[in-house]
Structure formats: structure tokens, C-alpha cells
């Protein structure tokens, strides 16, 4: 999965917070308090995110409505997967992470491992 640039990340954040698929104008309006990109810039960013597989779109009249192709949590998990795949020793990376994890994070990992074991 390709990393996102700052504006792409802001657009994805906007879409993840949206309660329904958004038009370019909706995204532009949501970005307005903090950023002031041009309409065409947001349209290009959304088109690029669609091409990269980060968003799906549906034609509504003459405009597209965009929504995330996956949740923020799924994107973070994929980013972690990409990091692990890029290392020479993913097991060592996981062990280092486990040593730095909080009790809450370790409990979540234990639950996930137990769920996985019970599905076998």
C-alpha cells in the first residue's frame, strides 16, 4: 500500500470521519477550517486516491461520491504489514514491539491470538 502525502492523509481523515459518501465540495468544505486547497486540487487528490485503491466512488448525477475503501484501522494494519514485510526479520520486529507494548495493547494481542486459535 502506498504511503499518503499530507493532503491525501487529510482527505482520508475527512472521509473516515464522514457519515456518508462525500462529494469533492463536501471534502473541500470539511478541509476549509485548516487548509484552503483549490477545488480542482481536491478533485485530483480524490481521483489519485481512487486510482491507488484508497477510496471507492459512485457517480451521483454529474458528480462522484467518495468513501474509504477500508477503515482507518485496516489501513494502519496494512501499513504495519508493509513494515514487517520490508524488514529482514519480521519476528524480531514483533518481539521488539511486544517488549514495548502497554498492558492494554498486550491484552488486545492476546485476545486476537486466542480468537485466531479458536477458529482453527
Find the count of extended strands (DSSP E, 2+ residues).
Answer: 2
Number of helices: 6
Number of structurally distinct domains:
2
Distance between the termini: 28 Å
What would the CATH topology of the largest domain be? Arc Repressor Mutant, subunit A
CATH architecture term of the largest domain: Orthogonal Bundle
Cα-based radius of gyration, to the nearest Å? 18 Å
Main sheet overview:
2 strands, antiparallel
Shape: elongated
Helix coverage percent: 55-70%
The CATH class of the largest domain is Mainly Alpha
Strand order in space, largest sheet? 1-2
Let me know the average pLDDT.
Answer: 94
Q: Name the CATH homologous superfamily of the largest domain.
A: Winged helix-like DNA-binding domain superfamily/Winged helix DNA-binding domain
Order of helices and strands: HHHEEHHH
Quickly give the structural class.
mainly alpha
Enumerate the spans where pLDDT stays under 50 for 5 or more consecutive residues.
Answer: none
User: What is the strand content?
Assistant: 5-15%
How would you explain this protein's 3D organization?
Helix content is 63%, strand content 10%. The chain starts with 5 loop residues before the first helix and ends with a helix. The protein is mainly α. It folds into two domains: 6-68, Arc Repressor Mutant, subunit A; 72-118. The model has no long low-confidence stretch (mean pLDDT 94). Helix 4 packs across helix 5.
Brief write-up:
The chain is mainly alpha-helical and 120 residues long.
Amino acid at each position: 500500500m502506498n504511503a499518503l502525502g499530507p493532503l491525501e492523509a487529510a482527505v482520508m481523515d475527512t472521509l473516515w470521519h464522514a457519515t456518508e459518501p462525500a462529494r469533492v465540495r463536501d471534502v473541500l468544505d470539511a478541509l476549509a477550517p485548516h487548509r484552503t486547497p483549490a477545488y480542482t486540487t481536491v478533485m485530483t487528490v480524490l481521483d489519485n486516491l481512487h486510482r491507488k485503491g484508497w477510496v471507492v466512488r459512485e457517480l451521483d448525477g454529474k458528480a462522484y461520491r467518495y468513501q474509504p475503501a477500508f477503515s482507518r484501522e485496516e489501513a494502519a494494519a496494512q501499513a504495519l504489514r508493509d513494515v514487517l514485510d520490508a524488514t529482514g526479520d519480521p519476528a524480531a520486529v514483533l518481539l521488539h514491539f511486544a517488549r514495548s507494548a502497554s498492558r492494554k495493547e498486550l491484552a488486545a494481542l492476546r485476545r486476537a491470538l486466542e480468537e485466531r486459535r479458536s477458529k482453527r
